[in-house]
């Protein structure tokens, strides 16, 4: 699911997973500041939703 699709439906978990994936892509592109920002956003959303499984794989 893309960020825009998740945002359009209000799917908070989908938004967080999309941000997590975008962070990985940013790392691959060498955009480490962007990756850190997205990682923190994803982590905050996972914490809001008490999603400990997803939270456990986010590197910030």
Characterization of this structure:
- The protein has helices at 3-9, 12-28, 32-48, 52-55.
- The chain has 60 residues and is mostly helical.
- The chain has one domain.
- It starts with a helix and ends in a 5-residue tail after the last helix.
Features:
mainly alpha; 4 helices; 0% strand; 60 residues
Ordered list of secondary-structure elements with their pairings:
Elements: H1 3-9, H2 12-28, H3 32-48, H4 52-55
Helix pairs in contact: 1-2, 2-3
Q: Please report the total strand number as a whole number.
A: 0
Helix content: over 70%
Helical/strand content category: mainly alpha
Radius of gyration: 11 Å
Q: Roughly how many Å apart are the termini?
A: 22 Å
Mean pLDDT: 82
Please indicate the percent range of residues in DSSP E strands (runs of 2 or more). under 5%
Count up the helices: 4
User: Unreliable segments (pLDDT under 50, ≥5 consecutive)?
Assistant: none
Largest sheet: none
Domains counted in the coordinates: how many?
Answer: 1
Order of helices and strands: HHHH
Shape descriptor reads globular
Briefly summarize what is shown.
This protein has 60 residues and is mainly alpha-helical.
